[in-house]
Amino acid sequence: MAWHPSALRPVALCIAALWPLAANTQLVISDTLTGATSAYLWRSLGGACLTAGTYASGSTRIPGCNGHPSYSGTVQVGGVAGRLPDPVGQGALRLTNGDTVRDGRNSADQTGSVVSDFTFPSSQGLQVTFTSVTYGGNGYGGTTTTPGPGADGLAFFLMDGSRPASDGEGAYGGSLGYSCSNNKYNADGVRGGYIGLGIDEFGNFSNPDDTSASGPGFRPRSIVLRGGGSITWGWLNASYSAYYPSWLSADERSEAVRNTCKSGKLWDYDRRSWWGGRLAPAETTQPVLTYPHIARSDLPSTQPIANQQVVSLPTRGNAIPITYSLKITQNGRLSLSYSYNGGAPTPVLTDQAITASNGPLPSTFRFGFSASTGGGSNVHEITCFKAEQMATSSSSAGVNAQQASRVQAGTQVYLAYYHATNNWGQLTANSLLYDSTTDSISLATTANWDAHCVLTGGTCQATGGTTVTAQGPSSRALLTWNGTQGIPFQWTNLTTAQRTALTAGDATATSSRLSYLRGDRSQEITASGTGTFRTRTGVLGDIQNASPTWVGPPTTNYPDTWRDRLTGTQGVEANYSTFQSTYATRPHVVYAGSNDGWLHGFRAGANDAAGNFSTATTANDGREVLGYMPAQVLNTIHSTTASLSYASPSYIDNAYVDATPGTGEIFYKGAWRTWLVGGLGGGGNATGQIASRTATGTGTIYALDVTNPANFSEANAASLVIGEWTSANLTCANVATGCGNNLGNTYGTPIIRRLHNGEWALIFGNGRNSANGVAGIFVVTFNATSGAPTVRFLSTGYGPSRDPQGASGKNGIAFVSSADLDGDRITDYIYAGDVFGYVWRFDLTSSTASDWAARSTPVFSTGGLPITTRVNVSSALSTTGAPRVILNLGTGQVFPQTATAGATHASGTQYLFGVWDADMTRWNDIGTTARYAALTGATAYPTVAASELVTQTITAVSGTNGEVNGYRAVSRAAVCWRGSTVCGSEAASNNHMGWRMALPGTNEQVVFNPVMFNSLMVVNTLIPAVDQPLSCTTTASAGFTMAVQADTGAAPATSFFNALVPSSVAVPTNTGIGGVGLNGTGSPSFVTTKGRTVLVQQNNRGTGTAVEVTPSASGKGKRVNWIRLR
C-alpha cells in the first residue's frame, strides 16, 4: 500500500523537559546514604558517619553516627528533627557535626572523610552528581545581625584508582581534606588526586596563602575546582629522594611538604657544600603539580551556602540543598555545574580540556568526600551520590519542568528539545511512516534534519551520524526592530540605545557580542582559556515553552466575497482563492522561538502543484531562512549581571523568545498576506523569569509578514517586520495614559481575526504580572487601506483587589479564543480565562469599535483555581431547542524555574470543566441566522459557580498495555440542564449549568491547551515531578490523556482509546474509559489516513508517539451536530 504524503500535514511538538539523546550508560553507582549502612564499601576517616546508623567498630562500610567515638562528649545536632539519630531511610552521610551556640566548641577542629573502597573505570568517561547541605553552625565570623560563614567547607574529589583508599586524606582547614596545606603541620594532600571540588564557606580553598600555590585569594561563599596533585611526604620521598631524603626529621618533612605546596616547585633538602656540609634547603626551578586552581564561581550574598547558624534545633529539611554535576568525557573534557535549591544549573566550567594540565585520565578513579571545621563549625552532609559512565557526546538528563506545546498536522513531526546544561536546544524533523503490513502510522526514529546541527555543524547524531557543514553567520537573514521599523541585525543598523544595551559594562563598545549572537564562535572561550564569551554546545539555544509552528500553503477556508451577517455589509476582501493558488507551492517553514534570543524559521520542503510534498524546488534540510530578535530581547539579552547575560561564561538561564507563535491570513493594505504573530512568554524581563504572583513583568507582541519566504532577506527587513507592541510603547485609543502598564508577560498565542467594523485584528491576552495587574485583552485593528494600527484594551476590571488568595496578586489572561456564532467568519465574541479563575466573554458584535467591552461579570468562576490555558468554545445540539454554547477548560499554573528555586505548580485539587454560556438573549435578538440556548425568562445572568455543575468522577482501573501507564474510568452522570426537562418535569430537578471533574493525581493539573476533536474535549494533564533535592530518588512527571464528552464530561459510549484498552480491563458499571496514562506533553494532534485516526504527541521522555484512537467515540455519526466555534 503506497504512502501518500498529501494525506497529512506537518505535526509540530515541543518537549517538556531536557531530553538526553544517545546516552551510553553502562555502569551506574548509586548510594542514597539514607540508611543505617551504605550500599557500597567506603573507607571512613575522622567523624564521617551515617546519621541513621549506629557505630560498629571494624565495619567495612561507613559507620553510624550514633555512638561514634569522634562525637563523644558532644551533641549531635541537625538531621530530621534537630538531633540525631535519624530514622532509617531519612538519613545522610555526615562529615562534620555542628553547633547551636555562637562561637561554640561543640564541633570545632573536626575532620571527616570517606573514600571509596571500589574503583570506577574512566574509559567511557563519567558523570557524577551529588547533593550537599551545610547548616547548623556556630556563626563564626558573624554577628547577632549578620550570619557568619561558619566552618571551612567540604570537598568532593576524584583520585587515581591505582592508589589505595588510605591515600585519600588531604590537609584539614582551608584545604578541605583534598589539597596540601601551606601552613598546617599535617600538610599532606591527597596522593593521586585528580580533581577536587571545594564547597568553600570560609574562603581559603582559593587562597594561595593557605592552600597550594595558585588561586585568586580569599574567596568566601564560592564553588572552587582544583586540579591534581600528590603532594605528600611519601610521594616526594619516593619520587625525588635526592631532594627529599628519608633521614629528614618529622619537622623537616612537614616543612618540606609545606614549602613545596606553597611554591609549586620542588625543594632540595639535601644540599651540600663542596666539602660535604649540609646547606639550607632551597627552591629548585622544577615545577610540580600542586592541585592548581582551575575555576571558581562566587555565590552572591543572597545565596548562602550555609544557613541556620546558632539555632537550637537546626534541621536538614530547612537547609539549602546544592546539587552538583561533574562530567569528564573519555577524551578528558570537563564540565561542572551546580543547582542551588533546585534552581537552574549554574555553570562553573564547560567542556574544558584538563589532560594538558592534569595529565591523562587514570584508568580508574576512586571517589572521596571530605570536610573540616576550625574555630567555625557547620554540619556538612551529603544526601545523595551517583556516578555513571557516559560517552563523549552524551547530554544531560535531568527533568526540570513541563512545557506547553502545540501540535499541528503533516508529513513530518517537529520535535523540540532543551538541554539545561549549557542551555542548548534541538529541533528535529522526523517523518511520519505508514506500514501497509500493520496498517499503522509511526514516527521515524532517525531525523531528516536537526536545526542544532544545521547551525552548529559537525557530526549529527539525530540524523544517524551524518556530517553537516554549519550555516555561517553571514548566510543568515537576521532581523530586529528599532522602534519604528524592521532593520537588519547588523551593528551599523542598530540605534545608539541598542548598541549601548549590547555593550553595557564593556570597556569598549564593539560589535563582538552582536557577532556572537549571530552565531560567530571565534570569540568563545577556548580550551586554553583565551576568548571572551561563553562556550556554547551549539548555536541553537534551548527551546523550552515555544512550540514549533509550521507554515505551508494558505489553507484557511475563506471566501472570495465577504458579507457580515449581523450588519449586512459587504467586505473589501476579495480573491482569496487566487491568493491560495499563488502561494500553493511556497516553501514550508517551521518557526520556533528559542532562548538564544531568536525566533528561527527553518525550511522544510514544499508542496508541488498537485499538493504533494516535494523537495524538487525547496530542500527539506532545516536550513534557517529567517531569524527575528524582538527589540525587548535585544535590550535584555546582555546584562551587567553575569548570570543573566547570555554570552557570559557565568550565564545560568533566562527566557527570551519563549512563547509559541501563531499564524494566519489577513487582508492588509488591500491584499491577502500571511502573518506570524507571537509573544515572549516569560522572556524579556531584565531581572530574569518571574516566579511570583506579585512581581511586575513586561511583554512584547511582534508581527511578521511571512507570505513569501523567497523575500526573506536582511534587505527586506522593513517590509517583513509589521511591528512590535510592548509594555513601554503601547498607546490605546480607549485608555488615556499608561495603557502599556496593562501588558505583562505574554505567554499566550495571539490570534488574527476579522471584526464587525470591517477591519482585521490581532487579538491577545494581556499576559501575567502586568504593572496594573488587571485581566483583559488587547485588540489591535488595522486600517483596511493604510494598514495603520489602532490598539484598544478591553479590561475586566478584576485586578489585585480581587485576588482570591487575598494576597494582592496580579491577575492576567494568557490565551484567547474566538467565537463566530453565525458562520460568516467574522468574530462575535472572545472568550478567555484569567489567573484568578474567572472565565470572561468580550463582546465584539458591534460595528463601532468603541462599543467593544467585557461582560460586566464573569461567565464562570472556578472558585479561585487558576486558568492559564485556552478556553475551548463549541456548540452542542440540545435534545430539545437551540444548541448550547459550551466552554471547556482546565485549571492549573506553572511558575518557572529560576536560579534559586525549581519550578512550582498551583496547589490543591484542580479540575476540568464544561460550562454552558446561557447569556445568549441579546445574541438571539441581533443574530439573523443562528440562535443559541438561553435561560428562559432570564433578565440577568450571574456568574456560574462550580457548585452549579454536576460532578463527573474518575476511578483508577488496573490493566496492562506497553504503551499505557494506567487507565481511568470516567462516570456518566446526567447533566440536568437548568430550564430543561432532562431529569424530569420539576424545575428543582434540573439545575445544572454544566459539569466538573476533579483531577485525582498528586498536584495534577492542566498546563497544556485542551483541544476539541468532534464532540470530545481532549487534554493532557500534568502530574508534576516530585521535587526531592535531598534524595537520590527521583519521581518523573507523568500525566493522563483525557477524552470526555465536551457538553457533559461523561465518558463516550465507546472509548476514544478503545484500541489501547485490553479486554482484561474491568470497567465499573455506568462508566467508560475516558483517560489513559500516555504521559503526553503539550496539545495532542490527530492524523487520519488509510481509515486510521492516530493521536500524535510527545511524551515525558521526549519521544514522539503515535497511537491509534477510535474516532466513532467522538460522536461521528450520531453526534455530527457539533460545531467548533472559531
Give a topology summary.
Layout: E1 11-14, E2 28-31, E3 42-46, E4 49-54, E5 64-66, E6 77-78, E7 82-83, E8 93-96, E9 111-116, E10 120-121, E11 126-135, E12 153-160, E13 193-200, E14 222-226, H1 233-239, H2 250-263, E15 265-268, E16 282-287, E17 293-298, E18 306-307, E19 322-328, E20 333-340, E21 346-353, H3 355-358, E22 364-372, E23 379-389, E24 412-419, E25 424-435, E26 440-443, E27 449-450, H4 451-456, E28 458-460, E29 466-468, E30 478-481, E31 486-488, H5 496-503, H6 512-518, E32 549-551, H7 576-582, E33 587-593, E34 599-607, E35 613-614, E36 624-629, H8 631-636, E37 662-668, E38 671-678, E39 700-705, H9 717-720, E40 721-726, E41 751-754, E42 760-765, E43 776-782, E44 789-795, E45 817-819, E46 829-833, E47 838-843, E48 853-854, E49 860-861, E50 872-876, E51 884-890, E52 894-895, E53 904-905, E54 911-916, H10 921-926, E55 944-945, E56 950-952, E57 954-957, E58 967-971, E59 994-998, E60 1011-1013, E61 1016-1020, E62 1041-1045, E63 1071-1076, E64 1080-1089, E65 1092-1099, E66 1104-1109, E67 1123-1124
Parallel strand pairs: 1-24, 4-5, 11-18, 30-36, 49-55, 56-59
Antiparallel strand pairs: 2-23, 3-9, 4-8, 6-7, 8-23, 9-22, 10-22, 11-19, 11-23, 12-13, 12-22, 13-14, 14-17, 15-16, 19-20, 20-21, 24-25, 25-26, 25-27, 28-29, 30-31, 32-33, 33-34, 34-35, 34-36, 37-38, 38-39, 39-40, 41-42, 42-43, 43-44, 45-46, 46-47, 47-48, 47-49, 50-51, 50-67, 51-54, 52-53, 54-59, ...
